[in-house]
Design brief:
The structure is a homodimer. Chain A has 5 helices and 3 strands; from the N terminus they run H-H-E-H-H-E-E-H. Chain A has a 3-stranded antiparallel β-sheet. Chain A is elongated and about 45 Å long. The first copy, chain A, binds a DNA duplex (30 and 30 nucleotides) through helix 4.
Chain lengths: ~110, ~110
Amino acid sequence: MDEKQLYINFGKAIGDETRATIMESLCCVWLSVNDLVETLGESVKQPTVSHHLKVLEEAGLVYVQQVGRNRYYTLNRRAVQVCCNVVVTRLQALTEGDVIPLDSIPVLDIP
Amino acid sequence: MDEKQLYINFGKAIGDETRATIMESLCCVWLSVNDLVETLGESVKQPTVSHHLKVLEEAGLVYVQQVGRNRYYTLNRRAVQVCCNVVVTRLQALTEGDVIPLDSIPVLDIP
DNA sequence: TTGACATATCGACACTCATCAATATATACT
DNA sequence: AGTATATATTGATGAGTGTCGATATGTCAA
């Protein structure tokens, strides 16, 4: 997958409030699906949580490990760093000299 | 707006391919709406571009400047940096001690 | 003022997707 | 074997939104 599609999928992932909450909950700790349902205060049902976890897994944003009947998830923080880095890289001037003023406009400075 | 809502809106913004393309096109240059339509290769009509620009403007991700009949937009690269920084901050271990070694998965300390 | 141009807004449509109840699948325990 | 637990999957539904044609608004020029 190319860089652009990578960060678009990343955007879709963090662009939903429930998924954002799940990602924050999975930061630096392993949680089972039911743990997550409990963490979310029963406001989201188990199938919904499973659905979001599948999305996150397919986006490479979580690690999964099966232990007995439980499936534990944790955030792939490295992937988050990579995605953010790609975004910033593609949306910033490569060098200071890349700032392009538009001739046809009197005085327009890039903020 | 709180940090979480900020980066959720940021995710929604970059989570759409057309908007992502627009943001990349607006990086480091001022473009009018018609310039953008042309840049996008006529694959997207003007009302659609205006719609996306409105979304980006409300998310604080673009600067706008009116010159005569034209409305020029450019990417607010500082805002992009801030959003990415917020995401990384909220999705990373606060201290090194919180880091879970991803390689040594066998041992799971689940409450 | 009239006409031409640039952009925003409106209304409608189609499509994506978040959600959940019901069900299926898988594993553990007795 | 059977029962209980944990999670995934299915199917349906509703909300959200990307898209565009048509139209409105605003600006400049003659």
